[in-house]
Design a protein that fits this description.
Blueprint: H1 9-17, E1 22-24, E2 30-34, E3 40-43, H2 52-69, H3 83-87, H4 91-98, H5 102-116, H6 125-135, H7 138-142, E4 153-155, H8 160-170, E5 181-186, E6 191-195, E7 199-203, E8 206-208, H9 212-215, E9 219-221, H10 226-233, E10 240-246, H11 251-254, E11 257-263, E12 277-280, E13 289-295, H12 296-302, H13 307-322, E14 331-336, H14 355-359, E15 370-372, H15 385-403
Parallel strand pairs: 2-11, 5-9, 8-15
Antiparallel strand pairs: 1-4, 2-3, 5-6, 6-7, 10-13, 10-14, 11-12, 12-13
Helix pairs in contact: 1-15, 2-5, 2-6
């Protein structure tokens, strides 16, 4: 199983152990491109129909990114020879220094919005390169034709089934829900963890696996190290909204379409149509659906819009791309992760310029008896489920070594 299922080996190994199956993401068929000049075009291949000059411009930038990200050490990005220079600039700055056609910049903005849920102006260029290197580079993150790419597989049923099976193995009563931690007090030989409602738990060690910005909501005694405090303050959560429209038939496939659509949703392009990207989301048992995302700038602008109005705008846009049947789903749901109290945004927390070189990538460094997990601390597929599993295994091994 592992040899054939790409390169997210840690996650795949866990799924195999839990006897949870995966299936291929559907990509066959033509894609839809909605350009900044409001032209909608069907195309095949990986790059939308832009000028040859723009294609060359984009390919040259991809080549540079693939080369530069390999210069950032995964275990300690601050040791990169250009660390201070790259951490001192935003990805937006590098984009304008490198790309010179508007079409290539447009495509770049779309991919970054989908990949991170932020605009290029919101994160450090060094962080961007390190994030890519943790997963194998730009192409494996973005190109479905590359074996082992980021979105090659889906979990049968739901991803939540992984947590359900794991919780079942731990046993009834060992997983406590609705117990948000309010304080962690460390003594010489134990840790006291207190949750909302003043329930306390005593342990030899603690592993925290929460988004970095939520760590700051916990009261620590003794206080967190200064660099840790400053780093988590400089790691804001990104912002994606996700919707799923379910249909009785996969009418887009009958029309020769894959269900893939992409468009720019930066300022001036998202006021009436919030959608940045869509994919075929047909379930493992064959229920047809389209999944889509509202990203970064558009997500911020549409976050205060009532769900009813968001639904109306989304379905109107889907009709534009896939035909009249798209406006009449049998079910529709939308999720704004920024409104989840114990999440705050998705898919990942990013680092702003200066965070890595001023405070160090110290997310993984144990603090006395407190150890850290969560996908942001991973060195493999940071920001993905694979990263979460890898980080959890690493933190567990740290504790086991301390207990030995």
């Amino acid at each position: 199983m592992l040899e054939d299922n790409g390169n997210q080996k840690t996650l795949m190994s866990l799924l195999e152990e839990l006897d949870i199956e995966v299936y291929n993401q559907l990509y066959s068929g033509s894609k839809v491109w909605h350009s900044n000049n409001n032209v909608i075009t069907k195309y095949s291949g990986e790059i939308p129909p832009v000028s040859y000059i723009a294609v060359l411009d984009l390919l040259w930038s991809i080549y540079k990114v693939e080369r530069l990200c390999k210069e950032v050490p995964i275990d300690n990005p601050s040791k990169c020879p250009c660390a201070e220079e790259w951490d001192g600039m935003t990805l937006e700055t590098w984009k304008h220094q490198t790309l010179w056609t508007n079409a290539a910049k447009e495509l770049f903005d779309i991919v970054i919005g989908i990949m991170f849920g932020v605009t290029p102006s919101q994160m450090s260029f060094l962080y961007f390169l390190h994030y890519l290197n943790c997963s194998g580079g730009w192409s494996i993150m973005t190109d479905p034709s590359v074996k082992g790419h980021a979105q090659e597989w889906k979990i049968k049923g739901t991803a939540h089934s992984v947590t359900e099976v794991l919780a079942g193995r731990l046993g009834k009563g060992r997983v406590l829900l609705n117990q948000p931690v309010t304080s962690i007090k460390q003594e010489d030989d134990h840790v006291m963890v207190t949750s909302l409602g003043s329930r306390s738990y005593k342990a030899k060690f603690v592993i925290l696996a929460v988004p970095p910005h939520l760590i700051g909501q916990i009261k620590f005694s003794p206080p967190l190290p200064y660099n840790k405090q400053r780093l988590i303050q400089n790691m804001p959560p990104s912002h994606l909204m996700k919707f799923v429209a379910t249909y009785s038939t996969a009418f887009w496939r009958k029309a020769g379409l894959s269900g893939d659509m992409a468009r720019n949703t930066t300022k001036g392009f998202c006021e009436s149509n919030p959608i940045a990207v869509t994919f075929d989301a047909t379930s493992s048992d064959g229920n047809p659906a389209i999944v889509g995302f509202i990203t970064s700038y558009a997500a911020a602008q549409w976050s205060t819009v009532m769900d009813k109005n968001k639904r109306e705008a989304i379905l109107k846009a889907l009709k534009l791309y896939f035909g009249e049947e798209a406006e009449k789903p049998i079910d529709f749901t939308i999720k704004d992760w920024s409104k989840e109290a114990w999440n705050g945004g998705c898919p990942v927390n990013v680092m702003v310029p200066g965070a890595m070189t001023n405070y160090g990538d110290c997310l993984r460094e144990p603090f006395l008896r407190v150890h850290w997990a969560g996908t942001e601390t991973a060195t493999e597929w940071r920001g993905f489920m694979n990263g979460a599993v890898q980080a959890g295994q690493r933190a567990a091994n740290e504790v086991l070594d301390s207990l030995a």
